[in-house]
Amino acid sequence: MRFLSCVVLIIAVAAPSQAQWKLDDAFKPAKPADLEDVKSTPAPAAAIVLFDGTSLGKWVKRDGKGEVKWTLKDGAMEGVKGHGDIITKDTFGGRFQLHVEFRVPYEPTGQGQGRGNSGVYLQGRYEVQVLDSYGLKSGKNDCAAIYGIAAPTVNACKAPTVWQSYDIEFAAPKFENGKKTEPAVMTVHHNGVKVHDAVKVTTDNTTSGLGGDPATPGPIMLQDHGHPVQFRNVWLLPVKE
To answer: Is the predicted pLDDT of residue 11 greater than 50, yes or no?
Structure first.
């Protein structure tokens, strides 16, 4: 009887996590394509591969020192609630293109920011929001928003549990004699759809960013917001000025 009780307990604990990656009959997609994973984009030869599905060796915790203990499974890394944000060991300045593939869990009872919440931060300071915003009218805090700055022009979300992609063209702010002359600029494609076109980022640190001197390079940061969001195939391509 004691052994049986342990087995039942293990199943009960594991079941909620598994359920988050399976849609139920209550979910009604707007169109079949919303249930199709985005096609994965291989890294170009000149790209810096930040995550290839096999190792978290290029990442550390937000403090810049701690070992990353996010879960590795099936070629993806999954955020672990309470572990905290993770950043790349390397920092990046100037102009670059960042490619990230992600998927959000199915959390139908969540409200607002409580559904598959995470974020991709450029230089650790400028966030492109990750959220389950499927079927919603997008705002400045929804999926693919430049958080708090600009809503995506189109809601290009796929259904939760389905792989999606960001391709973000980023230009760091410019400074002369310690004075900012140009703000950071971002163009974002979400699942191949352009949702931001050369948007000027009107702050030097969006909510929960790393802050620091905006004239200096910064890492890529992936946010732990308490939800098991997954990421795969993360690479960065420097662009010559």
So the answer is: no
Q: Which is nearest to 192 in space by CA: 158, 148, 145, 233?
A: 158
Q: Which domain holds residue 23?
A: 2-239
The arithmetic mean of pLDDT across residues 216-235, rounded, is 96
Q: Cα 221 to chain center, whole Å?
A: 8
pLDDT at residue 127 is higher than 70: yes
| Total domains in the fold of the chain | 1
Take residue 225 and report the two structure tokens written for it. Answer: 């917001």
How many Cα neighbours within 13 Å face the side chain of 120?
30
* CATH number where 10 lies: 2.60.120.560
| Spatial separation of the C-alpha atoms in residues 145 and 128, rounded to whole Å | 6
Q: How far apart are CA 212 and CA 26, in angstroms?
A: 45
According to DSSP H, which parts of the chain are helical?
Answer: 2-19
